[in-house]
Write a structure and sequence with these properties.
The chain is an alpha/beta fold.
């Protein structure tokens, strides 16, 4: 059983908290611009002193409302400046933040508020407010609901008014009473396989994440750097990197307007971007599609291949040769510079997590001058537990352990982890907690609680982890072949015309795939192929040209696997998978069970006439 451990290069004290830096920044660097707030389409500077004042004011308001240490307080909102202010205020008084995705249904909101026993909630808009108010009769513990940006007074204004008469010393007293072992947040899993569970993350868990991230990215997480946060802050990756950046005086900006992300990046000019792989795929596919539409597809293809070849050569002892360096320099002027401009112009690096990135995309971006440091983690590990880092990258892997953690591969190939970032258990759910932990002796003979991730992995001799796939997602064909679908699906999504792909074939004679078409790329494809502009994907689902285009992507994907694992049939679906229609989680992962149920007829059709 292969096992790796990395000792912590830092300590977490008994009274260390996630929010201590709010007030230490105020004291030692009050004029530093710690954030920029988007107001009337203009980025307005916010200093450490101003931000601390807002956090203190909101904390006093919560104290005056009777919120006690350990009470749960929910935030139902998209990513915006007020989100971290409220989060930090909640944590400052020893309460527990419960994030809820702004896209959640009424039933999902009801479940999280009820299960957590939240005593207060922040709703982003009047619509969110109404959703909670309609549930109030079913939530006896919910006493206060505030609206962040509605028709009435804002949440921050309400809290400031309510706390105006409260002694400011109470804030410091609450803060001083917090222990690092105290729960800081309940983060509910996205529920791709069942009802969400509340992961209890302590201040210590988050501090191990923050300080571990700093150890891995000392220059990227430093004063003078800029990070634009556009992932949902309800997701642990966005939240953890935000807190880590804040603690290290990185200037932060927040937006949820992903449709206008490119112009926003151009104005904010981040030095670091954090995202899920689908966003990086989309940027690449859009660039490739624009090149096709502009008649420059051959130039882009050559530039992409050169970037990948150059990055692969960087991983060898010899490095890129003279000719390859010359080609790379040429395409840097012609192509790569435009890609960096799309990321704001100053972006030097990116961090990716939440799903597999794929080696090809990783090599492309590194070759184009924006290295993506891919990591691995779960809600249960406070975001990343492994990550590639500056000067220690192996593209295609998810990196090495963050300091203060351990990992091992079980006899069945499952990845087991333990250490500072690993959660303390599921909220009020000891049965589920016991099901994912096992106690065993570590490499030094001490007793260790190992968390079973549910992911299949491999660790190389240098300590780099590679994720093979989800244990529960492994497809076992009728012939007994075990197939991990992630590799095939990643390769399919790399095609600019394909939005999503899901492989099927459990107990069937071969692997097949459901394919959705990218709506943004579909118009250009129709124009180039002489199709009616008004034609829908459903109209052309069996069109010979469209089928041939997807067939090329399938053949490319199949090159990565054995013949027994290859996709032999596919079906183009008339609609794309979206979060709104229920097939995707808020972090854009496919809900396989939902898709299998919703498109059961399409799956049956793939095998109906097969004589294999």
């Amino acid at each position: 059983m292969r096992e790796f451990s990395v000792p912590a290069s830092f300590t977490v004290g008994e009274h260390d908290t996630v929010v201590s830096t709010v007030f230490s920044h105020e004291a030692d660097d009050p004029r530093h611009v710690i954030a920029q707030r988007l107001e009337n389409r203009t980025w307005v500077d916010v200093t450490c002193a101003q931000l601390a004042g807002q956090v203190r004011s909101a904390a006093l308001g919560l104290i005056s409302a009777g919120v006690q240490p350990g009470d749960r307080v929910a935030i139902l909102s998209a990513t915006r400046y007020e989100w971290p202010i409220l989060d930090l205020a909640i944590l400052t008084i020893g309460a527990v933040t419960v994030p809820i995705y702004e896209t959640s249904s009424a039933e999902q909101v009801r479940f999280v508020l009820s299960d957590s026993g939240a005593v207060a909630a922040f709703a982003e808009t009047d619509e969110h407010l109404q959703k909670i108010e309609e549930l109030r009769g079913e939530l006896p513990e919910l006493r206060h609901v505030y609206c962040i940006d509605g028709t009435g007074p804002s949440a921050l204004e309400e809290l400031a008014d309510a706390g105006a008469g409260t002694d400011p010393a109470q804030v410091q007293a609450r803060l001083g009473a917090i222990r690092s072992a105290d729960v800081a947040t309940l983060v509910y899993t996205s529920g791709t396989t069942g009802r969400p569970k509340g992961c209890q993350l302590t201040h210590s868990n988050l501090l191990y994440e923050m300080r571990g991230a700093k150890a891995c990215f000392p220059a990227l997480l430093d004063k003078g750097e800029k990070l634009l946060v556009f992932l949902p802050l309800a997701h642990v990756l966005a939240r953890a990197i935000t807190i880590a950046a804040f603690s290290n005086k990185v200037t932060l900006g927040f937006t949820s307007d992903v449709k206008n992300l490119v112009p926003t990046l151009a104005v904010f000019k981040p030095t670091l971007v954090v995202s899920v792989p689908r966003v990086f795929e989309k940027v690449y596919n859009t660039a490739e599609q624009n090149a096709h539409d502009g008649g420059k597809d051959k130039i882009f293809a050559a530039a992409a291949n050169t970037a990948i070849e150059w990055s692969e050569a960087k991983a060898t002892k010899e490095g890129p040769g003279l000719l390859l360096n010359l080609k790379h320099a040429l395409f840097d002027r012609l192509v790569y510079g435009n890609l960096r401009t799309a990321l704001g112009g100053n972006c030097r690096a990116a961090i990716s997590g939440g799903a597999p990135l794929g080696a090809r995309l990783g090599h492309f971006y590194r070759g184009a001058g924006v290295t993506i440091y891919e990591g691995y983690g779960l809600t249960e590990t406070s975001a990343a537990i492994t990550v590639n880092r500056v000067d220690d990258v192996k593209v295609g892997s998810v990196g090495k352990l963050l300091p203060g953690n351990s990992m091992r591969i079980g006899d069945d190939g499952e990845l087991l982890v333990s250490g500072g970032v690993v959660f303390s258990g599921y909220w009020r759910n000891q049965t589920e907690t016991d099901a994912v932990f096992s106690a065993d002796a570590g490499s030094d003979g001490t007793r260790i609680g190992w968390f079973h991730t549910g992911d299949l992995g491999a660790i190389d001799d240098d300590g780099f982890l590679t994720i093979v796939g989800r244990k529960k997602e492994i497809i076992v064909t009728a012939g007994g072949k075990n197939v991990a679908p992630a590799l095939l699906e990643d390769r399919l999504r790399a095609h600019p015309l394909i939005s999503q792909a899901m492989c099927v074939g459990d107990a069937q004679p071969f692997i097949a795939a459901l394919i959705t078409i990218d709506p943004d790329a579909f118009g250009g494809w129709k124009a180039r192929n002489g199709k009616e502009a008004s034609a829908t994907v459903g109209d052309l689902a069996e069109d010979a040209d469209l089928m041939a285009e997807v067939e090329l992507a399938v053949k490319d994907a199949n090159q990565a696997v054995s013949k027994a694992e290859a996709i032999r049939k596919f079906r183009i679906l008339p609609v794309d998978f979206t979060e709104d229609t229920g097939e995707l989680t808020p972090t854009l992962k496919v809900k396989r069970k939902v898709v299998a149920e919703k498109f059961a007829g399409d799956i049956d059709a793939l095998y109906a006439k097969s004589g294999d």
